[in-house]
């Protein structure tokens, strides 16, 4: 038996939890910790590269003010959407991201269905992820909670999609104008 420390990187409060493991497991654990250390170093380099490349982007800084969007999701939005002026209105961006419901119409019969899920999977994922991780006191979280309260807990995914559409609308204006006026009005009130 070999005693192996299980702490990752710097030990918390100067302590490393030690666990007696058979030699084979101890070697494997040590190798996996080295891989994790290497990945952490590469992530730090990539995060630094992203922040230096997008430091002058006004839209990148503006959309980070939206609750739930941090540096990584902001970078995803900026790079995936590209030039936002190619969309005449936010609804076209939402449609491009696949966050609009399917709409079929024939004469007097209109059928609304599930999300189209056509378009950029990465932007759709980033919008839903931002809504899921939005803090309690943000407009997106309040919008999602209102829909869930009105439609019931079985409509949780529907509420997330609706809030993601609203968030993508704010991202559109943040990238286009360099500020999110909706948030400025909320701060003034």
How would you characterize the largest beta sheet? 2 strands, antiparallel
Number of helices: 8
The percentage helix is 55-70%
Which spans of ≥5 residues are poorly predicted at pLDDT below 50? 11-15
Shape: globular
Count of individual beta strands: 4
Strand proportion, as a percent range, falls in 5-15%
Distance between the termini: 64 Å
Mean pLDDT: 83
Structure class:
mainly alpha
Which strand order do you get reading across the main beta sheet?
1-2
Radius of gyration: 22 Å
SSE succession: EEHHHHEEHHHH
Describe what you observe in this structure:
The chain is mainly alpha-helical and 189 residues long. The protein has 8 helices and 4 strands. It has helices at 23-53, 58-63, 71-81, 90-96, 121-132, 139-151, 156-177, 181-188; strands at residues 2-5, 18-21, 101-106, 109-115. A two-stranded antiparallel sheet has the order 1-2. A hairpin with a 2-residue loop joins strand 3 (101-106) and strand 4 (109-115). Helix 3 (71-81) runs antiparallel to helix 5, helix 5 (121-132) crosses helix 7 (156-177) and helix 6 runs antiparallel to helix 7 (156-177). It starts with a strand and ends with a helix. The relative contact order is 0.12. The model is unreliable at 11-15 (pLDDT under 50).
């Amino acid at each position: 038996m070999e005693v192996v420390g299980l702490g990752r990187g710097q030990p918390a409060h100067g302590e490393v939890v030690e666990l007696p493991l058979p030699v084979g497991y101890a070697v494997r654990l040590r190798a996996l910790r080295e891989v994790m250390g290497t990945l952490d170093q590469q992530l730090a380099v990539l995060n630094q590269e992203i922040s230096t490349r997008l430091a002058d982007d006004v839209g990148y800084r503006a959309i980070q003010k939206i609750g739930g969007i941090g540096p990584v999701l902001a970078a995803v939005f900026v790079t995936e959407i590209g030039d936002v002026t190619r969309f005449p209105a936010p609804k076209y961006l939402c449609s491009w991201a696949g966050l609009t419901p399917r709409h079929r119409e024939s004469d007097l019969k209109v059928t609304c269905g599930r999300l189209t899920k056509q378009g950029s999977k990465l932007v759709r994922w980033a919008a839903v992820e931002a809504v899921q991780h939005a803090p309690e006191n943000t407009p997106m979280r309040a919008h999602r909670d209102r829909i869930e309260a009105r439609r019931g807990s079985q409509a949780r995914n529907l509420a997330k999609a609706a809030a993601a559409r609203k968030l993508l609308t704010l991202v559109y204006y943040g990238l286009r104008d360099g500020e999110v006026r909706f948030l400025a009005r909320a701060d003034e009130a």
